[in-house]
Amino acid sequence: MVAGGLGVGKTTAVQSISEIATINTDNWMTESGRPLDALADGQGKTTTTVAMDFGRITLESDLVLYLFGTPGQPRFWTIWEDLCRGASAALVLADARRLETSFPAIDYFERDADIPFAVAVNRFDDVLAHPVERIRAALELPEHVPLTTVDARSRSSVARALITTVGHSLRQAVLASGGDASGAGR
Questions:
Q1: Residue 93: inside a domain, yes or no?
Q2: Structural domains in the chain (count)
Q3: Theoretical Cys-Cys bridge with 150: which of 27, 120, 128, 164, CB 3.0 to 4.6 Å?
Q4: pTM for the whole thing?
Q5: CATH number, domain containing residue 94
């Protein structure tokens, strides 16, 4: 899963990395929905995901990821549970300029979803507003949750974030089975 708040780069990330034509459910924002969906910094977002984005990437010959991007608005969060069913891990995208939009997704994966997750801070315009460790503290993110940066427009950057997420998921699976996870997912 690729999750996060409105306008953090989920659709862009899925489109950047997918080796197939992506399926998305973006619709034009309506005037009646604009007060609910507007970005505080006036980024001029004109479309929004109302169900999901879907893509696929082969990381290794025996490791294919099916990517489901979640809608970012609270009124569409009811679909998250369905998208989580069968998921191995989640990558939560965050925008350092609007960290508060990340709290609901992080809370969901910490409390309600039974899957490992990592957080990637999207570098809009290749700028990171704050150092990563300050972002970790602001998000109150536990040390065991991987935190990295990403440029959602860059295939290689998204690949690195997904590899971090998959590695974390593999380590968590080994730990859950009572094994030694020190070399898992590297």
A1: yes
A2: 1
A3: 120
A4: 0.83
A5: 3.40.50.300
